Amino acid sequence: MTLRAVRGAVQVERDEPELVHGQVGRLLKEIMAANGLVPDDLVSIVFTATCDLVSAFPAEAARALGLVDVPLMCARELDVRGGLPRTVRILAHVETDRARSEIRHVYLDGAAVLRQDLARRPAGGGPSEGGAR
């Protein structure tokens, strides 16, 4: 097994705890499905949220999915003029046999614009995804 990093992001419609948790949970499930991951493959996850998301910790969504023994950390995204609002980004460190070129980075909904050069279809065939900056 090799340690790899998987990126992802999702834009939340409004700053409400249920929406933040729902979208982050959806993103985590998509990342895991797209990369054939199970909870034991997760080493750690860093979440960042833009300054306009203050109603909930993104990591709470991971705990609600049962990721209770994975180290999680939340941080504030840089507040850059013109940046995508209401966005949660994920950097997950995982153990996998996949080559770096086989890692699928998942970007959902409005966050798909962050890296259109990496755009792919999510595991469920839903909205397009891409990579993040």
Short description:
This protein has helices at residues 17-34, 59-64, and strands at residues 2-11, 42-49, 72-76, 87-96, 106-108. The radius of gyration is 14 Å and the shape is globular. By secondary structure, the chain is an alpha/beta fold.
Task: Give short descriptive properties of this protein.
133 residues, single chain, alpha/beta
Polypeptide structure, described:
The protein is an alpha/beta fold and 133 residues long. Helices cover 18% and strands 27% of the residues. It has helices at 17-34, 59-64; strands spanning 2-11, 42-49, 72-76, 87-96, 106-108. A five-stranded mixed β-sheet has the order 3-2-4-1-5, covered by helices on one side. Helix 2 (59-64) links the parallel strand 2 (42-49) and strand 3. The longest helix is centred in the first third of the chain and has 18 residues, at 17-34. It is globular. Residues 123-133 have low confidence and may be disordered.
Main sheet record: 5 strands, mixed
Gyration radius from CA atoms, angstroms = 14 Å
Helix content: 10-25%
H-E order: EHEHEEE
Cross-sheet strand order for the largest sheet: 3-2-4-1-5
Number of strands: 5
Query: How far is the N terminus from the C terminus?
Result: 26 Å
Structural class: alpha/beta
Mean residue pLDDT: 89
User: How would you describe the shape?
Assistant: globular
Strand content: 25-35%
